[in-house]
Amino acid sequence: MQLISPGRNALEGAAAALCAVAAMAVVSALALALLGAGSVGSAWSLTMAVTAMAVGGSVSAGSEASAGSGAGGLASLFGGGSGMGPSISGAADVAPLSVTLIGAVVLWVAFSWRLRQENKRRFTAGELVVRAAGAGTAAWIALMVVGALGQGSAALPEGAMGAMGGPGGGLDAGGPFGGQDAGGPFGDLAGGGGLGDLVGGMMAPSAVTYQVNAVSAGLGAVVWAAVVLGIGCLISRRVRLPLGGALDRLRATWAPSLSAVVRTMLVLAAVVLVPLVLVGAAVGDRAGTLAGGALLLAPNALAVFLSLGAGSSWTLGMHPVQSSGSNPLAGLMGQMGGSGGMPGLGGGQQTDRTEHLRSLAAGGWPLWLVALAVTGAILLGCAYRASRTTHPAYMRPLHPYSGPLARHLGMAERFSVVTAVVLGGVAWLAGASGNFGISMFGSQMGGMQAELAGSVLQTAAFGLLVGGLAGFAGSLLHTARGARASR
């Protein structure tokens, strides 16, 4: 059969990447529509930002109080836009894994279409490299452009500044600048409005500007495309690849375990995602908002749950940021409102909080115990599937042992490594962090940091243990079922 020209191969690879980026943008737009994000900013810019975040683009935001709003005259007095006036800054680093996974599936399906059609011959190594290079280059360029387009302004919800400190901790509640109802020492000023009204108006911009780091989005796109195409080439059963020799043996040895785990994770994500989105979209209102959040972050929650079941620890933390000690105004506010800075912005009314997710309860049972049962059943099913599809010649253990349990130990070793790599990877991807702060006179007055963090190394270590046990049990189960069927 006639070879395909390198140019055509590269263009087909690039087209696959562009289809994947388009699918990611559609999913992002749908989720934002369900969330009602169009009411706070440009739906186009927000869609581009979320799409870039799906491959690792980080988002930063900031604003300065406008001179024409609220206490604009006072803001101008304090320096306006020269860095002396009040401003908000923040950043978010989270990957909406639903968008990432849907893009990955579309990328592989479109990339491998020609490989599945050419049944009478295998692609040459050169053809495959050119095709992958076209896909990676197009993903890099497209997602850098998407990241550059992911910038704009978003309106802050009314009263957001007052709520930043939590219950009783806003700028207008309590502390030295609280209003009369809050009982602050300046509560009788300005007719009972309190200096907090003045400060709150001065420090409450109506909108923030945001932008995506296009460079990190482009680099993440290259890594994303390489990982997707590499895993696809390993686990695909219908694609004829020009591996040969040791690479063919490597694929036959490891691909069944990797295929079972990856395909199961994708199915689980779809099972969790599809019903929530359909029901939320049909019902609308608050359910629609929940559906939009699920459409973005359901796989993140699934990753946290499964890694908890493997034994990893996850923490959800909120950490106040103390105001700069070199700022005399911040020091004055700290002395009058409590130790540590502005009330509601990391001052005396806020405490550092860390919640360990494994200590939570679900239906009266510890969450980690529920997660352990679910994760164990899933991994056992994956190991059983891998044992069925692995040729006996490739189930020998990695160490020299030829006893009666050799094939079971070999299966346990390979499945444990695959489980550790997959769970460690999803634990790393599911982590999230964000921060915001308020600055004035060139110094930070206070702020807050939030993070959802899990230990990747601990997840990988427990993945080795749990995966090994599941692999051994799955191989034994397959052997027992085979013996029963033969009888």
Summarize the structure.
This protein is an alpha+beta fold and 487 residues long.
Q: How would you sum up this structure, described in words?
A:
- Helices cover 57% and strands 13% of the residues.
- With 487 residues, it is α+β, with helices and mostly antiparallel strands.
- α1 packs parallel to α6.
- It is built from 15 helices and 10 strands.
- About 13% of the residues have low confidence.
- β7 and β8 form a beta hairpin.
- 45% of the residues are buried.
Largest sheet: 8 strands, antiparallel
What level of helicity do the residues show? Answer: 55-70%
Distance between the termini: 47 Å
- Which overall shape is indicated by the principal axes computed on the Cα atoms? globular
Topology, number of strands: 10
Strand order of the largest sheet: 3-4-1-2-9-10-5-6
Radius of gyration: 27 Å
User: Structural class, judged by helices and strands?
Assistant: alpha+beta
User: How many helices in DSSP terms?
Assistant: 15
Overall pLDDT confidence? 78
Q: From N to C, what is the helix and strand string?
A: HHEHEHHHEHHEHHHEHEEEHHEEH
